[in-house]
Amino acid sequence: MDNTILGSTPDSVAGIQGYNVPSTTNTNGQAVSPTTLAGVAPSSFQATKDAPEIGQNGFTSSIRAKRAWAEIDTSYGSLQFGRMPWHWGRGIFYNDGNCADCDVGTTVDRIMGVTTIYGHQLALAWDFGATGVTTQQLSLGRLDPSGYQYDLSQGDNVLELMTSITRIDDPISVRERVDRGDLVVNYGVQLVYRRQAKVDVSSSTQATSSYGPQPQSPDQMSAPIDYGAWSVTPDLWFKLHYEAFTLEADATGIYGRIQHPGALADARARPHGQRDLQHGSSQGFDPGRRSHVRGRD
Predict the structure, then answer these.
(1) Dihedral of alpha carbons 120, 165, 188, 100, sign
(2) Structural domain of 45
(3) Please, are residues 49 and 10 in contact by the beta-carbon 8 Å criterion?
(4) Same domain as 77, residue 15
(5) Are residues 135 and 156 both part of a single domain?
(6) Count of other CB atoms within 10 angstroms of residue 250
(7) Alpha-carbon distance 104 to 94, whole Å?
(8) What is the pLDDT of residues 114-124, one digit of tens each?
(9) Which residues neighbour 161 within 8 Å (Cβ) at sequence distance 6 or greater?
(10) Do 26 and 150 share a domain, yes or no?
């Protein structure tokens, strides 16, 4: 039951215009409430509760596949593949949202290998960042939702590569070493590279539907235009434990360039493209009984 409000899907609203699609019934230019239409039972006559389902009583279904991945463990490390959570450091940029009351988080389609070398965890990943327009998002997919979905263009795909090396001790080992009075230091560095050579643009030959201009067949897709974007995102993480004292810090930045920014360009754009530059950091300090957290994004 994903974000379902109790009492929100009685059988009296199933398949009614105004709840899942805009109402087409108007009076003097004003939309009419669906429950005032002839033959529509008011909610007081509802007999049961229907499952939340897109196209019937809402815009989302109660059961949605958000993440599904597999892990293969060997003596050399592990291989992971699928749509999986992504978390790094304090979670200021990549946060899996796995806390008890979290509702959103970072999810990635990834093939990743992880191994341990001299007490450090080494990870290498190839991510399916974005494939661009597919038939699942266009009229082709809506007219035949049970058909085989495919990518309409390979030129607009986003290539994303990730590598990281960390030293993360398991919680039991950390607690035992802290209880002995040892100084425990965990740390890591992560590097993410992205590149997109082309982007899609709207075509004047696209058919018009209630959803706007939509390609009806692959030949109505316009050729992707040059974009030439790349970015590098380094992230440094550090955590120190000593007795009741804990200090943690995380810093990240995005550095890159767009060779052909188009509408994204502004007055500060340079002749050779638009620069992309962002920084962020977060620090945490826990002296035992009291906690102070400071951050800057």
Answers:
(1) negative
(2) 1-64
(3) yes
(4) no
(5) yes
(6) 22
(7) 11
(8) 999 999 999 99
(9) 125, 126, 127, 192, 193
(10) no
Q: What's the gap between Cα 88 and its chain centre?
A: 14
% of the chain beyond a pLDDT of 90? 32
Q: What is the CA radius of gyration of the chain?
A: 25
> What's the predicted TM-score (pTM) here?
0.71
Are 95 and 222 contained in the same domain? yes
Of 42, 64, 86, the residue at which a domain comes to its end is 64
Note the residue count of the chain: 297
Last residue of a domain, one of 13, 43, 64: 64
Residue 193 burial (C-beta neighbours within 10 Å; 0-12, 13-18, 19+): middle
Q: How far, in Å, CA of 81 to CA of 127, rounded?
A: 10
Q: Note the helical H segments in the chain.
A: 139-143, 171-179
Tens of pLDDT, residues 146-179? 666 777 777 788 899 999 999 999 989 999 999 9
The total domain count for the chain is 2
Measure CA 37 to chain center: 40
